Amino acid sequence: MSDFSEKNIVVTGAASGVGAAVVRRTSELGAQVAGLDINKATGESVVNAQGGQFIHCDVSDVASWHETATTLNDRFGSIDHLHLNAGIQIAPPEAPLGDYQFSAMNLARYKKMTGVNIDGVVYGLYYLLPLMRAGGSIVVTGSLAGITPYDIDPLYAMTKHAVTGLVRSLKVELGARQLRINALCPGGIDTGIIPQDQRTPDAVFMTPESVAHEVMMLFMTPESGATWAKVSEGKPAWIVPGPGQKKRSH
Predict the structure, then answer these.
(1) pLDDT 10s digits, 86-122
(2) Can you give the pTM of this predicted structure?
(3) d(C-alpha 42, C-alpha 14), whole Å
(4) Which terminus of the chain has a smaller tally of CB atoms within 10 A, N or C?
């Protein structure tokens, strides 16, 4: 793994799951890390324990992003790597699987999910791209549900397909600014958003740490505008090609 010393790294959804794992590992490798999350108590505990800086941020809220960008500019001045990771599903994990179906859609939950999964990426890019240092990279946490059907939670799949399309379409524009962007699209990860009814005896989930390793690999890859699938801990991520792209792994 590359040396991250003296690199400034920003991670959303930093209080748990993959975000927390990225905070821990990049901090261990010498990075200066800012962890963003709406969960203040847990976020402070996780990020501060690694010597990082916690910033309370509601990624679905424009005003919160404006305040966060101002804070990051004051503390860091520039960002080397950005991990837009925050994400939720349409229903809470304890809900029965029927609550995840389109026919059971709750409008408040729908607005909250699109706010986190789509707006959280768009606003993050809008407010933090001006702070990105040339040569830097952005990794967006997508999902296997963003490149394949996911009939358990169709609206979640919709949000992740949106992210995939955005990442693939920003390659040229960000390349002109000497920046790279990639989407990591993992299968099931052992995090708090997994529906409890999916945790059957035969279900296998990747650890957040194994997915965090792939995030850090993508921080360093020369590829950009690519969608990377990750389906198991023992198999490296590979590019799921759009039209004109070839399948590759790292």
Answers:
(1) 999 999 999 999 999 999 999 999 999 999 999 999 9
(2) 0.94
(3) 9
(4) N
Joined together, the tokens standing for residue 73 give: 């500019």
Amino acid at 134: A
Q: Which residues of 6-20 are buried (b: 16+ CB within 10 A; e: fewer)?
A: ebbbbbbbbbbbbbb
On whether the CB atoms of residues 229 and 246 are closer than 8 A, the answer is no
Helix spans in the chain (H): 17-28, 40-49, 62-75, 107-114, 120-128, 154-169, 171-175, 208-220
Tens of pLDDT along 141-153?
999 999 999 999 9
Orientation angle between helical segments 120-128 and 62-75, nearest 10 degrees: 40
User: Is residue 110 annotated as a catalytic residue, yes or no?
Assistant: no
Distance CA 250, CA 238 (A): 7
d(CA 163, CA 149): 15
| Euclidean distance between CA atoms 150 and 204, whole angstroms | 17
Top CATH class of 8-239 equals alpha beta
Structural contact between residues 63 and 39, judged by C-beta atoms closer than 8 angstroms: no
